[in-house]
Design brief:
This protein is an alpha/beta fold. It is built from 9 helices and 10 strands.
């Protein structure tokens, strides 16, 4: 069983989109999957408790019957940095509890989506590196392809490696259809990131081709 932690160069750069597309690709290749969003902020209560849209998309994409509160154990209503809300509510994010949840459903690949960029904290004392370690997960970095992405990507890569986590690869997700020198930016990142480029996703592309062989075997 492999655990892949999906992080990004920032918020709103397509982590959920990439996670869902990766889940679809894995299923098409014959792999069983599960998906999780341990911590989420920005949720609505439609009568069944708070529900975050990213978590709901992951549930749909993984096609599993995992209970919502196992996919997203820590859900906050306000759409702000979750560590602030966790502190206000006196909640500690228990990484061991999350690891136990994930271990209950044996699948080929478990996708775990983080929050914001890599250094966005989960609570006052818990980092995303802590969560990834507890899950024994390798990290996949989603690079939002727009002006400034080279700096954000290289800083994120450096910090992930500094934190001692295995960086499995990265995904170039085009979020600005008007980005100048798009391919040149990808080439620059490929020359500076040693880990493989797993997918290049065009603007509003729904069926990208992932190169998962380097990390699935």
């Amino acid at each position: 069983m492999k655990h892949w932690y999906i992080t990004g160069t920032d918020t709103e750069i397509g982590k959920t989109r990439v996670s869902c597309q990766l889940l679809q690709h894995l299923r098409q290749q014959g792999y069983s999957t599960s998906a999780y969003k341990p911590v989420a902020s920005g949720a609505l209560d439609a009568g069944e408790g708070l529900r975050n849209d990213d978590a709901l998309q992951l549930i749909h994409a993984s096609q599993t019957k995992t209970a919502y509160n196992e996919v997203n154990p820590w859900c906050f209503e306000e759409a702000v940095a979750p560590h602030l809300l966790a502190e206000e509510a006196g909640i500690n994010i228990d990484t061991a509890h999350m690891a136990d949840i994930v271990s209950r459903r044996p699948v080929d690949v478990a996708i775990i989506e983080g929050v914001g960029g890599w250094l966005a904290p989960l609570d006052a004392d818990t980092s995303q590196a802590d969560m990834a370690r507890a899950l024994n997960a390798g990290v996949i970095l989603v690079v939002g392809m727009r002006l400034g992405c080279i700096n954000h990507a290289l800083l994120s890569v450096g910090r992930i490696l500094q934190d001692g986590l295995p960086l499995l690869g990265w995904v170039a997700n085009r979020i600005d259809p008007e980005m100048s020198r798009y391919q040149d930016n990808i080439n620059t990142l490929k020359a500076r990131i040693q880990q493989p480029l797993l997918a290049t996703i065009a603007w509003e592309e729904n069926t990208p081709d992932f190169s998962i062989n380097p990390i699935i075997n």
